[in-house]
Amino acid sequence: MELMSTSYSDSDSTGTVRNGVTHKVYAIFASQPTRRFLLALSITQQEFCVHMFDRAGVMHSRAYSIHRSPHVLLCMLAVLTFGQPEHVGFNPTIIYSSPTSQISSNNTIQVGSATYSIIRQIFFNYLICGRGMTCWHVCRNGEDFVIKDSWTHESQINREADILSKICGLKGVPQLVTAWTVQIEGSDDRTDARRAFTPSSIRIHVHRRLLMQPVGLPLSEFKSLRELLSIFIDILDSMSKLLLHFSLADLTTFIAHKALVQEFHVLHCDVSVNNIMIYNCDVPASETSDSHGEEVTQSNDPDSGEGEESLKEKLVQWDQERHKQIQAGILRNGLLIDFDYATDLEQNLPTVCGDCTVSVHIIYAPLTH
Known about the structure:
- The structure is a single chain.
- This protein folds into 3 domains: 2-87, no CATH class; 105-215, 2-Layer Sandwich (Phosphorylase Kinase, domain 1); 218-347, no CATH class.
- The chain is built from 9 helices and 19 strands.
- It has helices spanning 8-11, 16-31, 70-82, 160-166, 225-236, 248-252, 258-264, 285-290, 306-327, and strands spanning 2-4, 37-44, 47-54, 57-60, 64-65, 94-95, 108-111, 114-124, 134-140, 143-153, 175-181, 183-184, 187-188, 205-213, 217-218, 266-267, 276-279, 333-336, 343-344.
- The strands form 5 sheets. The chain has a 7-stranded antiparallel sheet with strand order 6-7-8-9-10-14-11, with helices on one face.
- It is elongated and about 90 Å long.
- The N and C termini lie far apart (62 Å).
């Protein structure tokens, strides 16, 4: 609730009241990651106004006179004081006390009909409008999972769940266990459910959750420079393919989602430091010996130089040693996450709906030192 001495007519031009309410609402959303929306009340002199904030934006009511519309003020105060938690913006499908609380069975989150215990909060987006993404490390029956809770555009063509289902089994990407649209009182949780009319300029967001494995660590927790380089290589080649199958020119352009693009026809579109994580992956001994144990055959082509063949031998040898260290637990693997903006190239779509992202071109050079 915002109380001010100036009238709405005096503050409309400067937005004093609305700015004051917005700052307080931002603090509430930042401290309550389980918030779905928030109702606010501002009172200035003899007038009051109602504000509703959610992931699609904000709505402000007109100014009401306290004396001419006392029943409206009374109803608003009654809702804020005695309303059910889900009616004032809380999420009944998740119970979470605070980020600093200890692991407790009281902190739970629901995906479908199953309930998971919250271990910790991995990531939280502090913006009010947008995806409002929160990632949780959870467990059930002794097994660890990641739950991604976000508000996606209804018009989004390539949904992350569909992309993850398509690339299921690909090494180095999250493995989707289940996807669920959050239900509130038997209906999908959507931003247009709280709006009598949604103009075309307002995008409708739908509340969804993805249950995935494995649980990763931030890239900043790498233990050595060699492990950092190994993680980048995993991202560059999520399928750990043979480097010797490509020419030296191919190696320098062997970009992050080669397997995604060439085998699954999926373009990630949002590769960044925040979307690269570390995880422990069991590498079978057969993969180290069979996939990386072949000898590099010398080419009889007079145009191919011995320097290129020598470099290819060094790259293959280095990759063999890297996989042995991963198998021994000395190095950890890289994990490419967040396929919200990924594009299915097989759909041949000219545009992508939703928020925009920019990819930065990176020049790669062979690392043989």
